[in-house]
Amino acid sequence: MEAGIAFLLVVGLPLLGAPLIYLIGRLVERKKPSLNPARWVALLVFLSAFYPLGIALQAVINQDGPVSFSLGLIRLQLDGIGALLATLVLALGVLVVLFSGPYLGKEEHQEKFYALLSAMIGGMIGLGCTTDLFNLWVWFELMAIASYPLVAFHRQSAAALEAGVKYLVQSAIGSAFVLIGIALVFGQSGTLTLSGIRANAPLTPVMLAAGALFLIGFGVKAALVPLHTWLPDAHSQAPSGISAMLSGVVIEAGLIALLRALGALFAVSELWGVFLLGFAALNMLLGNLMALRQTQVKRLLAFSSLSHMGYIVLGIGCAFAFGAPNAAEGGFFHILTHGLMKGLAFLAAGALLYALYIANGKHQPLMVEDLDGAATRYPLAAFTFSVALLGLGGIPPLAGFMSKWQIFVGGFETHQPWAIVLVIFAALNSVLSLAYYAPLINRMYRHQPSRQIEIGQPVSVWMNVALLILTLGVVVLGFWPSLAGWLTQPAAQSLLTALGG
Amino acid sequence: MTLSVPNIVILIVIGLLGTGIYALLTVRNLIKVVVALQIMVKAAMLALVLAGRLQGQENLGQSLALTVIVADTIVAVVGLALAVQVRRVVGSLDLNALTTLRR
Question: Is the ipTM of this complex over 0.90?
Answer without folding.
Answer: yes
